[in-house]
Write a structure and sequence with these properties.
Blueprint lengths: L9 H16 L16 H12 L12 H45 L3 H31 L5 H12 L15 H30 L2 H8 L7 H23 L2
Helix pairs in contact: 2-6, 3-4, 3-6, 4-5, 4-6
Length: about 250
């Protein structure tokens, strides 16, 4: 501020304040030569990369230089499709283990209607996802963030896992540098695993016959009855194979 002299015109003062606000938004202190926070240590950069690849994009950490912006464009253009492919592969691998097999096992063991078992399983999976990735993390954020209440913590978890990422709430923690890095690393892992859990839950709900029938109202070209008949035939074949393989 020394180079501006003792007195500033209104226009120059407004420009100076705008510069200070922009610098503060990027973690640079306007009162000295050092930053109040290091925005680009490894864990912060990892958190930024995860928010880009999951399209959450909180906006609290952004590239400032032209080179950084160009790299971010190229990185997102390549990384987001690869992330979607990876998530699709993980869903394809996890759906039989966490969705199809438990439903078939309960249906065969207790002889319950398949539709009722699938509905109960989807409800249980949804409640588990709500508890493990919304409510429990919200309690943790409520305890660790000084100015967040419980509703704001739940709001942050939902906004993050739904990839909306408005950026009005960003976790900062209140610990030392080492624990702060561990905190950011934990949030990064939470974001990735929680997004996968949300996708798994949504895919399980979509597989319900009632939900697919609802979607068929908006897509009349799809023959839902034929798809259900095919799934019933496949289920009977799987059950017959399991019976033959299990017989002495």
């Amino acid at each position: 501020m020394g180079r501006h002299g003792a007195c500033l015109s209104e226009r120059r003062l407004a420009a100076l304040l705008r510069g200070l606000l922009r610098a503060g938004a990027h973690g640079v202190s306007g009162l000295g030569n050092a930053s109040a926070d290091e925005n680009w240590e490894f864990t912060s950069a990892l958190f930024f990369a995860a928010s880009v690849l999951t399209t959450t994009g909180y906006g609290h950490t952004v590239p400032v230089s032209d080179g950084g912006k160009i790299f971010c464009i190229l990185y997102a253009a390549v990384g987001i499709p690869m992330t979607l492919v990876l998530l699709a592969c993980l869903l394809q691998a996890l759906m039989p283990v966490l969705s199809s097999r438990p439903v078939r096992y309960v249906q065969r063991r207790w002889g319950l209607p398949l539709a009722h078992v699938a509905l109960g399983h989807a409800l249980a999976l949804g409640l588990a996802t709500l508890a493990l990735f919304i409510l429990i993390p919200a309690i943790c954020f409520w305890a660790l963030e000084d100015h967040w209440n419980f509703l704001e913590s739940v709001y942050f978890c939902f906004i993050s896992l739904s990839t909306i990422g408005l950026g009005d709430y960003v976790p900062k923690g209140r610990s030392g540098p080492l624990l702060h890095e561990l905190y950011e690393l934990s949030i990064t892992c939470y974001l990735l695993v929680g997004l996968l859990a949300m996708l798994l839950t949504l895919e399980t709900v979509y597989q319900l016959r009632e939900v697919r029938a609802l979607f068929a109202l908006f897509a009349p070209c799809r023959n839902l009855a034929q798809e259900d008949d095919q799934q019933d035939i496949l289920a009977q074949d799987e059950f017959a194979l399991a019976t033959v393989s299990g017989s002495p």
